[in-house]
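Hi there,

I know you've been waiting on this one. I reran it after we fixed the sequence typo, so this is the corrected version. Both the input and the resulting structure follow.
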Amino acid sequence: MNKSLRGLGEKPMTGYAETYRHSLEQPEEFWAEAAEAIDWERRWDQVLDASRPPFYRWFAGARLNTCWNALDRHVAAGRGERVALIWDSPVTGEIRHFTYRELRGEVAHRLVDGGLEGDALAGDPTRLVEEANTIPLFGGRRAVWVKAGARNFVAAVEALAAAASPDCRVVIEAGDLKRNAPLRVLCERAKNAAALPCYEDAKEQLERLIDEEMGSASLTIAPEARAMLLPLLGGDRLATRSELRKLALYARGKARVEIDDVIAVVADASVIAVDALVDAAFAGRIREVETEFGKARTAGTSPSSILFAALRHVAALHKARLAIDAGQSARAAAEGTWVNFRRFDDVDTALRRWTAAHLQRAMLQLADASFESRLKSDLAEAIADRVLLSLAVQAASLKAQS
């Protein structure tokens, strides 16, 4: 919203009886005054349109943003740290307080990351048609994002192609599909669907793009900054150039782009938060796990993504630990993992505490938690938090044994 028409309703309402009488005797004046307490993108032409009784229209011609009025405007007015919602679960016994700022982040996460899982559609093919034909709560057109998994959900897409909604677009993120993949074949043959290839740039092409964009801004880039930047680019050529130009603008006035510049501008906050969380858990920093878990969730990382990152990390640690047992130094084993060099110290700490047997049990523990979180999706956050705290406690106890 570019500019809101704001008001706080300056006329105080006295007693209930007087307020109620006012609403009955002068309803248009009453509700016009009440409406000043919220923000409008466009003011009304008429408080009450009674031209077609009994079909009355309040605030005819006006437009507002419900989410803005419920959350964003409180953050903008400096009330972001006030409690907006108290979540009291009778199931888990957990009580959580959400500030306006935290709740806004949760809502944004749900809107962006609230897609359908292809594996779920495989078991319920009609759900995609239902989602596509659902009338939006606030009007307008809808978009549904489907993330393909391991199971075949072609039947759901076939049903959608036969009963597509003119007011909804369905976007399927399916990874690298072979030419004869059933989903790709279906989308290429359907009249109301299309398969759009997205090719990633290779390392050599990304190197050239970095040099071009930095050179055009009269900048060089530090080797360690380049090393961190490369894995964050490549999904889309236009997006890559955009990120590089943003980085160059941020570093304007300097001679060289440093690693802190990359972290500040390009690095995905959710990825950084998950890395810090996983490192804290396997290093035995129990208090830090709670803090970093909250940061990861605030950054928009789902519990399933957190558990996947932890599983990938423990697998890398297990491989490195086996290398140590075969005679390699802990530092060399840490440097042989896929993690960024800035995390070597944390990886080195973990490798000095965990044995291969302990890491194997941790791997099973995380796999069980991942499975449980899929079965009990409403408790996924609590399950992920619990297993990471458990691993941190184990790591702390292993430190005493070393």
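Quick highlight: The longest strand covers residues 83-88.

Best,
R. S.
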